[in-house]
ATP synthase subunit a
Amino acid sequence: MALFANAMHLVAPVLFAAEEGEFHAPTMAEFFPDIVLFEGTPFAMNRIMMIRVLMMVVLLLLFWLGTRRMRVIPTRGQSLAEMALDFVRVNIAEDLLGKKDGRRFLPILTAMFFSILALNITGIVPGLNIAGTSVIGYPLVLAAVSYVTFIYAGIKKSPGNFFKNALFPAGVPKAIYIIVTPIEFISTFIIRPVTLTLRLMMNLLVGHLLLVLLFAATQFFLFSGEGFFKLFGVGTFAFGAVFTLFEILVAVLQAYVFALLTAVYIQLALAEEH
C-alpha cells in the first residue's frame, strides 16, 4: 500500500498525468517548481528547497534524540546513532586518513554523508517524491566544500610544495611537463569538483525521471488503456517497484561515494610527497 501511495504521489502533477487518453512523458519542468514561500525575496523557496530544509531539520532532530542522553549501556536510539556515526568514522575517515587526520576531517565527512543520504532518500518518500540533490545547487555547494577542503589540507601540510607537486609530479622529464602539467591541472582542480557535482546530481535526476515514467505509464495503462493493454500496467508497476528498491541502494551508494572521494582527495593532498 505504501508503494502504491508513493506511485500515486509521483504521478499526481498534471504534467505527468494521463489526460483525455493521452500519455504525458516526464519533463525537466519537475525540477523547477513554482515558488511557494517568500516570493520576490532572496529567501524565495520552492518545493525542492522546502524538502531540503525539512530533511535537515529531521536529520538534526534524529541525531539529537539519539545522543542527548549518552549512557554507558546505550539505549536503542543511542546504539543506532553510534552505529551510523561509526560507519563514517571507521569505514571512510580512519580507513583512508588514519586516526589523527581522520579525526580532523570527520565533521565534514560526516555532514556530507548524512546530508546527502537524507536528501537522496526523499526521492522515494511519499508526498516528497523528489531528491533534494537532483537539482544542481546542493551538489555544487558540497563539491565546492570538498574542493576547498582538500586544497586547504594540502597547503596546510606543505605550504610551499602543494601546488608544485600537484602540477609537476616528481620523476617526470622536464620536457614532458608541457603535456603533464595541463593534464594534472585539469584533472585535479577542474575535473574533481565537476565530476563530484554531476555524478551526484545526474544519478538522482535520472532516477526520478525513470520512476515517474514507470508509474505514469502504470496509471495510463490501468485507467486509460483498453483490453489487453491494461496488462502492461502490471508490468510497469512491477518495474517501478523494483526500481524503487534500487533507488534506495543508489541513495546510500551516492552518499558513500561522495564522502569517500572527498576523503581520497584529502588523503592525496596529505601524501608525503607534498
Summary: The CA atoms of residues 165 and 209 lie 43 Å apart.
